[in-house]
Amino acid sequence: MILLIAAVAGLLVGCGWWLFDPGADTRLKSLLGAPRGGRGKSVGDSDRGRGARSGAMGSRVAEGSGERVAGAGEPGPSPTSAMSAVDALAFDLDLVSICLQTGLPTERALSLAAAAGGDRTGLDRLGRSLALGEIDDSNEELAAVSRLVLFSRSTGVALAPLLRGLAGDLRRAEHRRRQIAAARLGVELVVPLGVCVLPAFLLLGVVPVVLSLVDDLGVLFG
What we know:
It contains 9 helices and no strands. It has 222 residues and is mostly helical.
């Protein structure tokens, strides 16, 4: 009987380890939006690339030239390789805000920001639609930007502070989403472990004690 209990307990513990260990790190990275490659290297390269693009664009805009940002024709990093899509949109909105503060029109500011990032968020299409006198609302991610543009044009409120505020809201919402995903993942990892380990504990710790008590009581009252 004891051997049978030990075999069942070992099987349950093995199942718990199999459910708990494989893919846990991959699931955590996918939920948190972390890059699969070297984290430090990709983040550092991304920061240097963003700083170079921001500096180049700021100097061009300040001089009032109509030239494109240096290296704008080259495709920028994809949102999933260095940052999430929400973070990429927030960063591009900060670029648009900087361009607007230098006196550029909205359409030109959107085009420059899109060129600096390889048009990873679709701002160039929004700028083209504004140049044609229309608002492109087909992209749900840019719907809030379109609403702010319409609000600015109808009320005369400066658009740059509105875009900076929207970028901050997007970052906070993304940070909160990642926190919730991490907390949910912790619960999902504990449940299969508990389902397998708790029965094993009962079989190894509680059942033998109960069986020994039953034998003792049987001898006592037999």
